[in-house]
Every structure is written in C-alpha cells, then in structure tokens.
Amino acid sequence: MVDQHEKREGSRNSEGRRDSQLSGNTLIDANPLTTPRKVDEKSEKSKLHRNDEEMQVKVKGEDGSLSEASIKVKQLTWIEAGGLMSTEYIVIAILSFPSSFSVLGMAGGVIATVLIGLTVLYTSHVLWRYCMANPGSTDICDLGSRLFPKKFRTAAWYIISIMFLLNNLFIMGLHVLSGAVALNTLSEHSQCTVVFGTITVLIMFILSLPRELNQIALLGFASAFFMLIAFILCLVFLGIQDGPAGWTAGQPITVRVWAAPGTTFVAGFNAFLNIVYTFVGQILIPSYIDDMRKPEDFPKALYLCTALEIIVFTLGGAVGYYYIGDEWITSPAYGSLEQPYVKVVAAFTLPTVIVVGVLYSNVTSRFIFLRIFSVDSVHRLQHTVKGWAIWIAIVFGGFAISFCIGEGLPFFNTLLSLMSSLFDWWFGFVLEGLAFFALYKGVDRWSTATRKAETCLNILIIVAGIFVLVGGCYSSISEIVDDYAAGTVGSAFACENNGF
Questions:
Q1: Domains in the chain: boundaries
Q2: pTM for this one?
Q3: Can you state the percent helix, strand and coil of the chain, rounding each to 5?
Q4: Which CATH architecture has domain 76-486?
Q5: Helix-helix angle 449-486:431-439, to 10 degrees
C-alpha cells in the first residue's frame, strides 16, 4: 500500500508541473518544498494530455484564463489586480497619517511618506520579478521558502506560513475593531461595543464566502471609491469647520515643520512605523500574481496603485495636520470633526473597513483550503457539499479568531504595532532583498552600473528591515509597559464606547 505522504507529495508535484506547463515552454517543478528543476518536456506533455483527457483538471482558454471545472482560477486582469491592491492600501489607515505628521512635523512626514512609498514600489517590483522566475507558487509562503537551502526549506515554509496567518488574522481583527468604532460613532453608542463587533464580523463572513478573487475585486473597486470619498469629505469638513473638535476661539493650533523638541525615540519611531505599516502590503502580491491571466502585466497595476498611494497619503497627512494641529490630533483624523460631519465620514469608511477584512479573509482561507485538498480533488474542482462545508468552516474559524483578537485584547492597538514589527520586517523588506540576491548571483550583481546600484540598495533594504524589527519591537513593548503604568489599558470584551 502506498504511503499517504508520498501520495500527497506526488499530487503537489503534479500541480506544480501542470502550472509550469501553462507558464511557458520551460517546465519547472513548482513544489515550494523542493528545489526548482527542469523536467523532460516531451514526456511531461504526454502525461498532461492523459490527465486532461481523464480528469479535465485545467483548461486554458483562448483569452488566457484557466478553468478548474466549475471553480475558475487565473481570471484576474491587471485592472482587477489593481482594484485588489487599492482595497489593501486605500483604507481607513490613511486617516491616521495626520497623527504621524504631528509627531514628525510637516516636512518630516512628507519626506518619510514619499521615501517609504518609493521603497515599497521598488521591493514590490523585485517581488514580481521573483514570482515570474518561480511560476506555480501560489503565495508568499511558497516563494519565501525557496530562498532557503533545500534541507531547511520545509521548516522555513512552516515558519513563514505561521507568520502569514498571524499577520492576516491580526489585520482582520483590526477591521473588526474599526467596524465597531464606526458603528458606535454613527449610533452614538446605542449598543454594547461587542455587539457592534459581532455585527461587523457577520457581514464580513457573508461577503467572504465567494471563492474566486476576481469576485472580491469588484468589492475592491467599491471599497476604494468609498474610502476616497471619505478621505475627500474629511479634508473638506476640516477646512470648512471653525476648528477641530474640542477647540474654542483663541486656543492655539500648532503646526510644525519638523518634530517638536524633546520628541522621544519611541514616539518618533512609532509615528514612522505607522507610515511603514500602511504602505507594506507585499504579503498578498504573490497571491494576486498567481491568479492573473497575464502575470507580466502586474507592474501596470503596481505603478498605478503606488502613485495613488503616495499622492493620497501625502495630501491626507499634510492637509489633515494643517487643520488639526498638535493639540487636537486624533487617529483616525475624522475624530477631529464636529457633528454631523464625523458621522458622514464614519458612514463612508464602513464599506472599506468591511471589504478589507473580506479580502484578507479570502486570501487566508484560500491558503488553507488549497493545502487541505490536492490539485485534482473533486472538492477543489467542483461545487461539492464537502468542499463548500470545509470552505465555510475555514472562513468562520478565521473570523472567530480575529473577533477574539480585536475585541478580547485590551491593548490591541499597541499589540498590533508589535505584531507588525515582527512580521513586516520580513514580508516588506528582508524577503524582497533576499529575492534580489536569489535572482542575480555572483558577478551578475555587479555587471552594470544599474545592477551595482540595485545590489547596494538591496543591502540597505535588508538592514532597514532588521532595524524595523529591532526598533519596532522596542518601541511597541515600551508603549505597552507605559500604558499599563498609566492605567490606560481597558478590559477584554468591554462594552465601553470606542467611537467619536
């Protein structure tokens, strides 16, 4: 009797070979836990032909799309990929930029925003290049494991997968909490905050049930649209009201060019990290690229989305800070609006809060689902009762955990900064730097002036990632300790009003 582990390994190898067949003439084994290798094309085509006749596992259409029976994959266009990226980046976090600017100063905030934006643009492009060189990898965990020697690859895959899942679950938890904030603001705390968190989770759960990313992309466009409206309205309302919430005539509204004298390392670095965390979103890029009809078109989505990010983030931080000042700053910035403006903006942020949670749920659930069923499983290829039952259970389990994280941890916001420091240093900086050195080896790194500059830049990016890890952990832990010492840490699953 054949060992079940060997069956699973054979299934994964089969999946990698079929995906490689679709990526070009050169066949590459796409199993993330083995070393990429070339295989015999003629014999492999024969096997593929037999598999397609017997099972009709995958069919490549004339438009480049790929169908797995009734569950469609590789459907994304670059425009839809851009919509998904906009969902990930044009979020409520853009309204937290004024608080970072109030610590770093107007000039410091602008410089930090533009510099980080360009860095993330470059590292994302490197990641795309690495994806193209490793076809068949379905997510960041597959790609990341390839950076390690073969004997460490399995252990690396599991460690990166745990980081990937925890990162996504914490982001989902953040949006559960943000949904409760918006509903509390709109209703003037008509219900217990836990009730509003539950309502947010239920809506996200229902919208997360579709299994195809291109369906989520439609929600992504709507999400980005509503968030841009909320962003514009927030800045307009800040400009037309007499002053920020709580301000009275005669009181100062201080705006500084640089950070105020006496600004501590913890305060300054946390403000810097707030900008970093909003930009760093490379963790989902391989999932988008894997599901695209033409992965080579991904840079179009990347350039468009990054340009939008830098413009929106810089304007939001600068204009918001100018009208709010140091003394009246809130995060998100719509907390500095008077009534009824604050309710109008809160209403427009709610769709975005929900859809971003849905996006991270879908990618996370897909990651788990694809590892439960082999590539030729009927439950993966068709609409079956068991397949849908497992999918629904995964989605439900993810939101149950994220709800407990968002509502159950009394210092969640600070803990989120700590978790981001533990994960984003790798997913946003070091992984991409190592990917560059995996793409260009030996003398290739110094072959041209451009390549020499890239090599030096990637060394700096890896160092910056390590600094984010060390500095971020130090500043986040220090803030948690200070909050406990000041007695500002609340209780778990509290009903207190967290709205504005």
A1: 1-55, 76-486
A2: 0.80
A3: 75, 0, 25
A4: Orthogonal Bundle (1.10)
A5: 160
